[in-house]
Design a protein that fits this description.
Length: about 400
Amino acid sequence: MDNNQKHLNHIDRVNLGSYYTPEIIVDLAYSILNKNISDIKNWTILDSSCGYGSFLAKKGVAKRLVGADIDKTAILEAQKKNKDITFICQNSLANVCRENLSIKTEEKLIAIGNPPYNDTTSIIRNSIKDVSVQNKIDSDIKTRDLGMSFLLSYNKLQADYVCVLHPLSYLIKKANFSLLSKFAKNYKLIDGIIISSHEFSDTSRGMAFPILIALYKEDSDGMTYDYIQKYQFKVKDDGSFCLRDFDTIANYVQKYPNKKYLNGNDKPVAKFWTLRDINALKRNRTFIDSDTYNTVYILMEKLPYYCYIDVFKQYADKMPYFIGNCDIIIDNKKFNDIKECFIAQSVHTNPILKNKFKFREIPNAKLKIDNYFKELLGNKLGEKYAKNFN
Ligand SMILES: C[S@@+](CC[C@H](N)C(=O)[O-])C[C@H]1O[C@@H](n2cnc3c(N)ncnc32)[C@H](O)[C@@H]1O
């Protein structure tokens, strides 16, 4: 982001999700568009969260360019830079219709951009979040995340194509995908490329997470969650991956608090923190001592899997960023072949388990685990990723 795009203080930037897009990413989005649409010169391109207009600074690219943003200063700046474009200062999630954007029903429309993606219920930043925008969002597109509401708004505008950046988690987490059902009913992901959140200098301090530059096409068949599971996602400067290629821990263990499902005969032998995705595992604890609203109670027969997760955490920093929002991956057969190595490693390194259990030393346990991860990543994602585990 260049310096003249820094007119907001930290609070406003968080409220509006104002992280501006580097030119190289804008160019990537246009290259995806051009690959899939032969005549974008005949289309109207709309960025309804345009900021300083990075996605609209491409002269002559389309028949008509329209920009809108809730931030008045950003709109004034965008207008200064691009005098021949229509810019509108508005809340693009309220009273959503083509008319308010001076776009006619018959215009062929591509929605483009990098809408804000701040989860409006997130605990960390709630204290500085402005609820007034949230309160004015049209009820039929209101979700817990501004970015998902933006996707739903493109559906309301009946855009023919939608080419926007959004967290990959919108598609790959089932709960998110369900929130997008009105969008998914009418649009299909036809192309896209995954980039790291660290491509944005302003967000590079936190843990990297995958962002998809997605191209959706209006399609009366829409897309199902199964379609996403089978989709081959391309990764910038890397290969590609498909969620279906991975087996995950969710198929073998309880991820969420399970107290109410235990019956009188169940005798939990250990406790675990709620499981989410790989990035959450990096931040969170694994085995715990306390009983909290986040506690998962572990029965003896499932203990090896939780040891696996505990050991996985030790290796998580070596996993590529683009699987950060996936469930913890596993090769169940190979894991079972060496499960004693995982139990030994976890019992001998985790202070909570060390106090609870005794387990014999397994010769070369660490080496076998290294090899396990080398194969897991190498086989599914390519040799490049296996090298991290040498
Ligand atoms: C991630 S920035 C992207 C800006 C620009 N598209 C770019 O890529 O450089 C998100 C933009 O969304 C705007 N925004 C946030 N909520 C909005 C809303 N409800 N209506 C319109 N714009 C909004 C912010 O002001 C900010 O400029």
